[in-house]
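Good morning,

Both structures are done.
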Amino acid sequence: MTTLTSQPLSGLLDRLFEEANTATSPAMGNLSLEECDRLMHSKTEYRHLYGLIRDLWLPVSRETGNLLYMLARSSRARTIVEFGTSFGISTLFLAAALRDNGGGQLITSEFEPSKVVRAGQNLADGGLIDLVEIREGDALTTFADLPDAIDLVLLDGAKSIYLDVFKLIEPRLRPGALIIADDADNCPEYLDYIRSAPRTFLSTSFADDIDVTMRLA
């Protein structure tokens, strides 16, 4: 048995995915597709968009969560950085891997105060809060101070600033570190940066717009 497949986490994840699937956002219904797309790709108004849709969970899929767990376990990650906590579903998968790796630290960042509170409660309910530091605010600020030798990174926040956030993390990546970018097809600037440096990064795409990159030696 693993932390991921044992109680209390297994049952908690079932409940959270069910809740996420039924969540709605009244504000989202008032946004045109064009306006939503504009805000999503804006480097100055992304916080406004995520404030409007704060009721939406925006979780990774269960399959992606399992992939995160497997990558963190197989790489024996001990130091993980996550951009975009939301209600903490992806954080739970990553923290479970840390627990089963023997411990470590997960630093994550979230814009919305209400999501920070709920994510913290979910991590406590899953018995994993001791492994996680949730930094409230914009990751461009909260990630100014990070540990050295980061083993794994998840990018799953505001798409327009993936590259800006990654550049804060990049100098601290150890050789062999993994970077998982969710919805990567919406982040061409980030993908262009990664794929323009084949001697530094090895990158491949998976289903559901997931890009997995390894930092080479």
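Second structure follows.
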Amino acid sequence: MKKILFVFGTRPELIKMAPIILRMKQFPEDFEVCVCNSAQHRDMLTGLLDLFGIDVDIDLNIMKPDQDLFDITSGLISAFKKDILQVFKPDWIFVQGDTTTTLSAAMSSFYSRIPLAHVEAGLRTYRMDSPFPEEFNRRVCSLIANRHYCPTKTAEANLLREGVCKENILLTGNTGIDSIYWLLSNYDEQFFKQNISNKCEAIGELIENGQRIVLITLHRREHFGSTFLNIINAIKTLAENFPDVSWIYPVHPNPNVSVPVKEHLQNMPNIHLLPPMDYVSFIYLMKLSYFVLTDSGGVQEEAPSLGKPILVLRETTERPEGIEAGSAMLAGNDPDCIIDMATELFTNKKLYQKMSGIQNPYGDGNAAKIIVDDLKKSSFKNVT
């Protein structure tokens, strides 16, 4: 039996780890599973844990007011030594993606000489400042990981080009797509409608009235400051140009985001600023949206599964497959470019239909099965 430690701390990590945890727990004769939550984003995790039915075995409760990356990283590595390895001595540590929790767990696995499995490995922009600090975090994980679970062929090619042994790479698809399919197959339309109406009656009424919706997410650290203001001013102009469209923006609680958003967008009658949304409500809103404006990596993967075009509000993306397939366009952070591309999606029906019909390049919902089956075999070498 293999002892497996899953470490996560943010909502995207849990969404993409949950299918693997649920799948692995179907084989108690093969795996002893321990779930660790760093609580890097505690408020965004509680309802999601309940939704997937996942119990946390170790809660690090790492977050404190006004922490920066120095504080989070050092606190997590210290907690890993004191609060995890004294409780559970794993054969493998699983991390996902590119967060500070991921980086800290990866470094701790290296210091303790415990093999590391990296889910969603190999994504790159090859610009260390974009996204920041995520690009750095991913690259460090790739130096440490013993098993690299790649969501796409592009990610696999990146690792091979960097000298990672092919025997330790497996192409899986993205587990975030597994979670969407799990959600849509386990809950009906009425559940989604009732859930969102309970959370926000005004948004429920918009949906009932068949209002055309554009969903917005914008929170990347590298945008803070003048770049962020450029983007939200573009959103303001679009809302003025298309007053019959409801622009729904769940606002990240970070003051670098929430303060300028409220200052510039709060009084727009057709812009709806919401607190961070639960996963169920967010996926349902995405399903109902006309298109999505986002700087999120996960949303770039999720939206094509629901047939939604994406304008990526970044200069670079570590997920080029959507751009190449045609389900997404890279709008950057120039206001004129954002306005022009969004206007084109509203007015060019041929373009809209083409982007809506692209098959999701990020997966087919079987990634967790591939990963768990692979670990059951354990035929690969324990080297990078």
